[in-house]
Amino acid sequence: MIRALHRWPGLLALALVTILALSGAALSVFPAAERIGAPQAEAGLTVATLASRIQAAYPGVEQIRRAPSGRITAYWFDRGTPGAAVIEPATGEGVASADPSQVERWLTNLHRSLFLGDGGRIAMAAGAAAMLILAISGAVLVARRSGGWRHWFARLRGPLAGRLHVEVARIAVIGLVLSSTTALWMTASTFDLLPDGGAILAVPAEVSGETGFALDRMLALGQTPVAELRELSFPYPGDATDVFTLKTDRGTGYLDQGTGALLACTDLTGWERVSETIYMLHTGQGASTLGLVLGLMALGVPVMGATGVLVWLAGRNGRPRIRGSQPAGRAETLLLVGSESGSTWGFAATLHAALTGAGQGVHVGPMSAFAPERYSRAQRIILLAATYGDGAAPASAKGFLDRLRAADRAPDIPLAVLGFGDRSFPAYCAFARSVAAAAKAKGWPELMPFDTVDRQSPQDFARWGRALGDALGIDLELSHRPVPPKTETLTLVSRRDYGAEVQAPTAILRFAQPRVPLWQRLTGCGFARFAAGELIGILPEGSTVPRLYSLASGRSDGFIEIVVKKQPGGLCSGQLTALEPGATVTAFLRRNPGFRPDRGRAPLILIGAGTGIGPLAGFVRGNARRRPVHLFFGMRHPGSDFLYGEEISAWREEGRLTRLITAVSRGTRPRYVQDALRGDAAQVAQLVRDGARVMVCGGREMAAGVADALAEILAPTGLTPKVLKAEGRYVEDVY
Amino acid sequence: MKSLLAAFALTTALTLPDLAMARPVTLTTTLNDYGGDGAYLALYVTDASGDYVGSLWMAGGKSKYYKHLTDWYRATGGDTAQVNGITGASVGAGRTLEITLDLADALFEAGYTLHIDAAVEDMRDSPNEVAVPLTADGAGTPVRGRRYIASFAYNM
């Protein structure tokens, strides 16, 4: 709902909002330029002195105006010819032309009415309304995406366009809300929809009938500092019944030209003050710095427009289209999805189609949009939840658990939770489990017992679907065929072989980067953007199930590199390790945003064994900033499977790698990488105390051994691997 | 050309008993190229003692800007009822406003003066831009305004 509220005004009003923002940004420069360029009055100068100086220079002076920038303009008649000039207050002499800037006038008319009069004003007001809707709905989306308002500035992951969109929005949103609300207020004021017209001060009927009282002797003028002046109008020459009109920040007054007495005065009304403040906030006239800041923020609009369109297009391609999803308030079945990479959405689409086919009204949405108070017709809620990392919420389920825990009570609508995960990981379906546990703790009625789907198994899903059908009393057959990822053909460029002598034949395979179309480069899809530590899925010949390998290179390296060990009887590893340069494989990219070095300068402790060196080597190769890196590498024999042995010495010389600590598991004194850690305990503990980040890659047993060893090493410091994990300073990629 | 039949009803003693005592008068106002946005113009009549009698035309639709038509605003207290039904668009620089009204015969040769106040956004207000006595002889004689009006004439 919120997303639609963000998307459609955004796409429809894109041109209008862009014109508004660009012209507004250009206009924001003028008040600042005027502020700098205008001759300013000396402190303490009174209107009486200023007016006397101007009258001395221009005896026919009719009106003196002071702009919020401090610029003073005088208008006069000299022998029947009108004149005007910007005044130097110190002398009362004109120093510059008072004609308004034609560029500013042109921009103003474009900005407020597209040169189309009242119709244009209404169109631009609609643009401002669209901007306000976009800003507010966008802010809600950002808060939802980052897991709550408290995490407004949380780090982002995902393709560049989306990150740029949110990064700009997080800063610009405040300015855009201010500019668009003030714009709507000003339009309402222009069309007389607000009672901000101000009081009318009647001209006094009784005047002295005298003329020629000296300006510098008028008490009211002598008491008014120039800083408060807005306008001083002189009486018509020769009309003894006319008066001086003085307008200041406080109000309007009439002065007798024969006695200088204040004949009548009135204050600004509250509405007038509000409208003036809003005018100042919108135009920057009188607040030129704020104006410049708002103008700068407005420049974010075209950036957000372009990236927003890219995000929308990429989203249309990425996720399976779910047709006929009912509004949440009207659906009988609520299907909420917690997905990181999008594959769970595919299952949701299958379930949605089957339930809809069975005559149900089904709403499909992200778990992060959980809002039980809106589910007025719902009879069941089904959660399909994947897991991110070690039990964290996946992207589309951010904030769900917080909201459930914060609720007074669970909804009365029966709930089914289906977890999606990979049984080879210890945190199998951990997020879905914590959701199910939290629901139970809240007393949420159960529709079906908690169940899981292992490695996107269509069989698991079909089995669960039959159980769901039984619970609903309908015949439900779920035949899920995963949407195949968009693959590329990669050509092997070179290979280096290791480990044959120690019964661990391993190859470093280097593929050429495929040609990336401009479209993908802009959206960061596919191989347009990848980093060491991300995953590449290889579809072996004769199988539709992909195998995942960690990337040992990033986009900037110019090639795609992986490290593969030949598994006994392994289909994919067998094919890969037999590959000769020039041969090709079918592959796709799978994001793995959790496993990459942060952007800080704190030391890195990289720990890996066997093929686990791959992504770690990629991190070292990409360490152009010479951040301190300590690499712990476990191998069987340095003479046989010292992967990246040659490069490592070069990297050390270049300063990309600070220290290499190896552990050799074959030979007289077998040592594993965790033993090497223990041997270096003092320094490891010191590094961690100093804020180092630990990254582990390799087999499951090795990772467990490393975690144990680290727990021992860190015990004296009071830190544990668990605490480090919670801080994001301890990450694993295990297989 | 804008034509109005009997829309003009003078507020004080000059309401029209019947149309036979009125005649069509064309007011032609041409602005000079002052280099600004459209001008607001208030056309109104004062009597021999300078008191406001009634309005003939208001060029400019947004009443919040009427305060810049200083003399008219002072005389009427900004009362928009004075220009109900006789309000049109503001007049662009270099453009001509031509209106035809049925004016009471009694307005001519009786010391009445026709005034025009003008105002342009971000430029000086120009009250009493034009002030011409209403006489049969004066008809057809163009006069120059002080700031924005290149020529004004009334023709019977």
Number of domains of chain B: 1
Biggest beta-sheet profile of chain A: 8 strands, antiparallel
* Alpha-beta content class of chain B: mainly beta
Tally of DSSP β-strands of chain B: 9
H/E series of chain B, N to C? Answer: EEEEHEEEEE
Shape of chain A: elongated
Helix fraction bin of chain A: 25-40%
How much of the sequence of chain B is in beta strands?
35-45%
Report the top-level CATH class of chain B.
Answer: Mainly Beta
Characterise this structure.
- The complex is a heterodimer of chains A (735) and B (156).
- In chain A, α2 (14-27) runs antiparallel to α5.
- The two termini of chain A are 39 Å apart.
- Chain A folds into five domains: 2-31 and 104-196 and 289-313, no CATH class; 45-89 and 199-268, no CATH class; 319-472, Rossmann fold; 488-590, Beta Barrel (Elongation Factor Tu (Ef-tu), domain 3); 604-734, 3-Layer(aba) Sandwich (Rossmann fold), CATH 3.40.50.
- Chain A is α/β, with parallel strands linked by helices.
- Chain B has 156 residues and is mainly beta.
- Chain B has one domain (2-155): Immunoglobulin-like (Sandwich).
- Helix content of chain B is 4%, strand content 39%.
- Chain B contains one helix and nine strands.
- Chain B is globular.
- The model of chain B is unreliable at 1-19 (pLDDT under 50).
- Classes of the chains: A alpha/beta (735), B mainly beta (156).
- The A-B interface holds A 62-63, 75, 77, 80, 82, 84, 99-100, 102, 105, 109, 117-118, 189-192, 196-198, 200, 202-203, 233, 236 and B 35-37, 61-64, 67, 70, 73-74, 77-78, 89, 122-125, 128, 146-147.
- Chain B: This is DUF2271 domain-containing protein.
- Chain B: Keywords: Signal.
- Chain B: Residues 1-22 form the signal peptide.
